[in-house]
Design brief:
The chain is an alpha+beta fold and 444 residues long. It has a domain at 89-186 and 273-423: Clam (outer membrane lipoprotein receptor (LolB), chain A). 15% of the residues lie in helices and 31% in strands. It has helices at 9-25, 29-37, 66-70, 89-97, 129-141, 388-393, 428-434, and strands at residues 49-50, 77-79, 103-104, 110-111, 150-160, 180-193, 215-225, 233-239, 247-252, 257-260, 290-302, 313-314, 320-321, 324-337, 344-352, 358-365, 370-379, 398-406, 411-417, 421-422. It has a 16-stranded mixed sheet that branches. A two-stranded antiparallel ribbon has the order 3-4. The longest helix is centred in the first third of the chain and has 17 residues, at 9-25. The chain is globular. The termini are far apart.
Length: 444
């Protein structure tokens, strides 16, 4: 029986568990620096499965904060061989044809870039950490992504902690661990690239669509469930000029109008989640909004080729993928926001050395304590060489989901694709029709 001034044993256990995780996470920068400098005695062998009792052997491969989430009964890491996810020949040819031409501008932008990987990673150790950080940033931005990807159904689940990390009364798709599903949103997502396209050398590497002379990509995000957000739609347009601000337009059905979002709103929690507009896939913001410092290399465990049709998550807060994990060499870069009012003081971004996709991001709050951990999950499509277009459509590592774990509040936001991740070949007419601002009020 609960009496006034007392707490139940379950709640006490929950507070103890949260306190232990927060205590290690509160070390912040020091814990991250120590982890970056660490190395395993031996890498785990493919074909092995490591559970809670052997997790210490994986400590240097799992980031602070995330290691704490994984250090729970029932969590397992199934280790598979490191895959080869090299980009297609057309992208490699563009890289070779333009090797050595791209240079960093005085403002940190790129000049004389056309297509392929802008900078040779062999140069990272020969320039200043700031220059190498910017080179790595642009290699990430201009990685092989064909025309961009589309997910017709994408869930965002907001998970709250429960006593002892047990399953809560409300569960949502993908949750096989602890926590309560406080809220679930469903959205449609599509990104299209307009310029610097390696497969279009005959068209000066760009599509002949609206705005392709001045825009790099466009995002369309449209919410379809639940009823209170259905129809809420965002169109994000990224300029080719690095110094130019994004154009972000949103349509809110409750207000029945289209409004322009300010740059500062990009740092707000997106739709009440643990993500911001700049956090999707680890980093999706403007390079020029941050200072970049190259921090070397680090080997991590990552879900680079998920075996699951839709992602599954275990652990006390349903934030550890139940999947196959690979040992992946990564580059490390530290980002510092130029805007003094940003809630984050720094982000450590780990980028796969072969694909230039982000594997994880570690964010520090304004007091330099570990704030959020974001982990991405990808899947390589089955190759289809039936046509040249299908060969390219199945040559990209597709995003399948991310978890954003708020260390300070012990909450998780799961974002996962519940439909296929598609890389459709887009005609100019399809691009113009899909991403027209006049369609904002139509919803999906």
């Amino acid at each position: 029986m609960k009496t006034k001034g007392s707490v139940t044993l379950g709640l006490l256990a929950c507070l103890v568990w949260q306190g232990a995780a927060q205590a290690e996470g509160a070390q912040g920068r020091e814990a991250i620096e120590a982890w970056l400098a660490s190395a395993p005695a031996a890498l785990p062998e493919p074909g092995t499965t490591v559970g809670n009792e052997g997790l210490e052997t994986l400590r240097s491969l799992l980031a602070p904060g995330f290691y704490d989430a994984a250090n729970a009964p029932g969590v397992q890491f199934e280790i598979v061989a490191t895959g080869d996810y090299a980009p297609p020949q057309v992208y490699q040819d563009a890289t070779a044809a333009n090797a050595g031409k791209t240079v960093l501008g005085a403002d940190g932008g790129v000049e004389q870039y056309t297509a392929g990987t802008p900078f040779d990673p062999e140069r990272f150790d020969d320039v200043s950490p700031q220059e190498a950080g910017l080179m790595l940033a642009w290699n990430h931005v201009y990685r092989w992504q064909y025309y961009g990807y589309r997910v017709k159904t994408l869930d965002m689940v907001y998970v709250q902690p429960t006593a002892n990390g047990a399953p809560g009364g409300t569960q949502a798709g993908g949750m096989e661990g602890g926590g309560d599903a406080e809220r679930q949103l469903v959205q449609f997502y599509h990104r299209v690239y307009l310029n610097h396209l390696a497969m279009l050398p005959a068209q000066q590497y760009r599509v002949n669509a609206n705005d392709s002379a001045g825009r790099y990509f466009k995002d369309l995000i449209s919410f379809v469930e639940p009823f209170d957000v259905a129809g809420t739609t965002f169109v994000v347009e990224r300029a080719l000029q690095a110094s130019e601000e994004d154009q972000v337009n949103s349509y809110l059905p409750s207000q029945r109008r289209v409004r322009r979002l300010s740059a500062k709103e990009r740092a707000d929690n997106f739709m009440g989640s643990n993500y911001t507009l700049d956090d999707f896939e680890g980093f999706s913001g403007r390079v020029m909004d941050y200072e970049w410092i190259y921090r070397g290399q680090k080997t991590v465990l990552h879900v680079s080729n998920s075996r699951e049709k839709t992602l599954r998550f275990g652990g006390p807060l349903s934030n550890v993928a139940v999947d196959q994990w690979e040992v992946r060499p990564c580059f490390v870069v530290e980002l510092k926001p130029r805007w003094e009012g940003h809630p984050m003081s720094a982000k450590f971004l780990l980028i796969d050395q072969q694909t230039y996709t982000p594997t994880m991001a570690l964010m520090l709050d304004r007091k330099n304590a570990l704030w959020r951990v974001l982990v991405t999950h990808y899947q390589r499509p089955t190759p289809d060489n039936s046509t040249p277009e299908r060969a390219l459509e199945t040559s990209v590592s597709g995003w399948r989901g991310s978890i954003a774990f708020d260390v300070s509040n012990q909450t998780t936001t799961i974002a996962r694709a519940t439909s296929a991740t598609e890389f459709p070949t887009m005609s100019e007419r399809e691009i113009n029709r899909t991403f027209s601002l006049s369609r904002l009020t139509e919803g999906r």
